[in-house]
Design brief:
Order of helices and strands: HHEEEHEHHEHHHH
Largest sheet: 5 strands, mixed
Helix content: 25-40%
CATH superfamily: Ribonuclease H-like superfamily/Ribonuclease H
Distance between the termini: 18 Å
Strand content: 5-15%
Radius of gyration: 20 Å
CATH class: Alpha Beta
Number of domains: 1
Length: about 250
């Protein structure tokens, strides 16, 4: 296919369907974010946050896994119904990667992120840790995705108190565009980098998985995060040029 026909292998990009309202909302959000750009084209002091799951047993895509053998080996791959995992919250800003925070119970087992859990994270970890790092909370913009736990009344109330007039979220001071993984630095760079590195050491326990995540975050070059935030500003401008639609020139690279 490649040699004779000069064909190349491509993957279909799965993205959220956008309604006319979503597209209009993305344009409005981009216009407001654009006003926050400084002279260097970098968004002024914004902390982009998100959560991700890290499964201890990894993930197998059975559609891409095949045996070549003269006979059917009838091989079974068994995994537990409830796989052990970690739910991690991190943030990225020009000063570096912020985190990590694990959503877990007293026994160290992962829990569903509820509004109560999210408020506890904000009060017991986020605010104290930013203060310890010497970050001026009055000038820092805090961004979050539109998950229900994030946008619940109790969660938004705590955020508005911690970051007065500086919340980028549904229900915040600047709305965050719906269905925009191509704009969230955690989605398009941070999780991709971490998940490609964390499992190289083959962690066998939750404790080892935690340690691997912490080590890989600490290993991320400080020079990378200013570049990421500069790219964030570029993507905001692309959103406006693209009328609020998906960034095909970002999703499909040659």
């Amino acid at each position: 296919m490649h040699k004779d026909l000069n064909f190349h292998l491509y993957k279909i990009a799965i993205v959220q369907e956008l309604s006319d309202w979503d597209i209009a909302n993305r344009r409005v959000s981009s216009e407001q974010l654009l006003k926050m750009l400084n002279d260097d084209g970098v968004i002024n002091t914004v902390l982009i946050t998100d959560e991700a799951h890290f499964h201890l047993s990894g993930y197998m895509n059975k559609e891409n896994y095949h045996y070549w053998a003269p006979e059917n080996p009838q091989e079974l791959h068994q995994h537990p119904l409830h796989r052990e995992r970690l739910t991690v919250c991190c943030g990225i800003e020009s000063f570096g990667v912020f985190g990590t925070y694990f959503f877990e119970d007293n026994e160290g087992a992962a829990v569903t992120v509820t509004s109560k859990c999210y408020v506890a994270m904000q009060c017991n970890f986020c605010e104290p840790e930013l203060t310890r790092l010497g970050i001026d909370l009055s000038s820092l913009w805090f961004q979050q995705e539109g998950a229900t736990a994030h946008t619940a009344r109790a969660s938004v109330s705590v955020l508005r108190e911690t970051f007065p007039q500086h919340v980028i979220s549904r229900g915040g001071n600047v709305p965050w565009p719906v269905g925009s993984p191509d704009l969230s630095a955690c989605d398009y760079i941070l999780w991709r980098v971490l998940k490609s590195r964390v499992f190289i050491s083959k962690p066998r326990t939750i404790t080892e998985l935690k340690q691997s995540i912490r080590e890989e975050i600490a290993a991320i070059r400080e020079q990378m995060t200013p570049q990421v935030m500069e790219n964030f500003g570029v993507r905001v401008k692309q959103y406006l040029r693209n009328g609020g639609r998906h960034l095909s020139d970002v999703l499909f690279k040659t």
